[in-house]
């Protein structure tokens, strides 16, 4: 099936996820160690957008993002599945603990530690009665959170704090012992003493920065930051037959989809969704707070430790009664343990400007991705279209209310055109919300309704009062207590992207994601890009002023330009028809103009982003999309009132 290579780096735990997944599947591969201070031409070629590891190379294909790689692996190689076969179980697997914890001080560190402890508590609950997160064997979530068992003790020793206590987290502690004794995992762990020395060197670089002055201090700070990048999602990159795959989770999915032996993800769609849920939880909750605790002191460290403990308790519960998160064997979770736009919307001043700048950068990337395509999915709506589909509808509202501009037709012609196409897709249009819906949640809700309508699934919609959440919402989404939540025969699935994949795996008609594992990995990559780059900066631009807004607008434009390139030559992000990504970004062409008007900024310009602009027209004219769009005047009034608050 092609040669397999992994681009990684010594200090980072993320390449280990990919290696573990490949070993679990029995796949032979070549490991290439990257110098993150002097990144190789191969890494820059295989992961030109993020320039990070891990990257999986499979033949001529490259896959980035560790979680995406894990799913690719599980879908490519069916043996030893990481995610469950049942769609509901698969959806339940995806949770998140994002990594940013070890770079703070004082109160910030305390907060991170507190949040991490909360995340651990959740994981402790998830382990309840299980050997692994996957059940009786290692599964997807076991691989995701597996780094905790080896790296966390080193961090604790360096910083003088304790998180993974055997008395507080008995299930997690026992799971850690079992996980580290799985032969093929144990042999790929870096020596603890060497890891401690390398991390200490990074910390010394930070100390040196504060001991020097002027230019010397700037040099020391730069050196320390470069050293610390190894702890972030800088690597690995998997090379498979000349194809680069970056980002550890992306690589894991690529490996699992390419090599079927020892599957990382379950076959059952529900079990796969559950695995993804817990993986997301581990990424966003545990890792972030652990790193914050690592780089902070005093009250900030205390809070980070407390948060980390809470998260680990949750993981500990999840492990109860299981050998691994994957069950009796290692699974996806065992391997792993719209941000800029939202920041633009909810921030002000310098923070908003920074978010707008980031959003522009990310939108430029989406703009490039759209070049030559009707939708992100190609000729029809695909997975990525659904993920970013909120942009054409909600972003204009955010721009108008926030007084900033991102989705400019001149700057992002492809995104702007895609927005119109997406919002005119019938099943998209009919599910767009009335203007009096709560802005923070409605975008994600539309994605789910669009997907169900596109699949021809009859459903009941239950309106939630988010100021007085119902017992049903608290029962079915006790971890996050947010919407949307999909109830399927009494089974609850939370997190909009997890729900989308569950829907696509449960009902096969009108597929949102491509069948080819590599194409699926690429779609997931763009979905992650849109969620983290475009949405965050647009919201930041909306809620900020002055330099902060300028920065956020610039960042959003950059991201939209990337989307513009992706749309080139395509009707939709999904290809000739609406796909996953079309639904994800489909709200931009409708909402963004409203946000631009209220906020006094411009992003989706037809001249700058012709493909996005044309796509927006096509999307908004799809019947099921169009009929669900709220009246523009009411939406405008709602967003304007929202900003006044």
UniProtKB/TrEMBL annotation:
<protein>
    <recommendedName>
        <fullName>glutathione transferase</fullName>
        <ecNumber>2.5.1.18</ecNumber>
    </recommendedName>
</protein>
<dbReference type="InterPro" id="IPR036249">
    <property type="entry name" value="Thioredoxin-like_sf"/>
</dbReference>
<dbReference type="InterPro" id="IPR010987">
    <property type="entry name" value="Glutathione-S-Trfase_C-like"/>
</dbReference>
<feature type="domain" description="GST C-terminal">
    <location>
        <begin position="516"/>
        <end position="639"/>
    </location>
</feature>
<dbReference type="InterPro" id="IPR004046">
    <property type="entry name" value="GST_C"/>
</dbReference>
<dbReference type="GO" id="GO:0006749">
    <property type="term" value="P:glutathione metabolic process"/>
</dbReference>
<feature type="domain" description="GST N-terminal">
    <location>
        <begin position="432"/>
        <end position="511"/>
    </location>
</feature>
<dbReference type="InterPro" id="IPR045073">
    <property type="entry name" value="Omega/Tau-like"/>
</dbReference>
<dbReference type="InterPro" id="IPR045074">
    <property type="entry name" value="GST_C_Tau"/>
</dbReference>
<dbReference type="InterPro" id="IPR036282">
    <property type="entry name" value="Glutathione-S-Trfase_C_sf"/>
</dbReference>
<dbReference type="Pfam" id="PF02798">
    <property type="entry name" value="GST_N"/>
</dbReference>
<dbReference type="GO" id="GO:0004364">
    <property type="term" value="F:glutathione transferase activity"/>
</dbReference>
<feature type="domain" description="GST N-terminal">
    <location>
        <begin position="2"/>
        <end position="81"/>
    </location>
</feature>
<dbReference type="InterPro" id="IPR004045">
    <property type="entry name" value="Glutathione_S-Trfase_N"/>
</dbReference>
<dbReference type="GO" id="GO:0005737">
    <property type="term" value="C:cytoplasm"/>
</dbReference>
<feature type="domain" description="GST C-terminal">
    <location>
        <begin position="268"/>
        <end position="442"/>
    </location>
</feature>
<dbReference type="Pfam" id="PF00043">
    <property type="entry name" value="GST_C"/>
</dbReference>
<keyword id="KW-0808">Transferase</keyword>
<feature type="domain" description="GST C-terminal">
    <location>
        <begin position="59"/>
        <end position="199"/>
    </location>
</feature>
<dbReference type="InterPro" id="IPR040079">
    <property type="entry name" value="Glutathione_S-Trfase"/>
</dbReference>
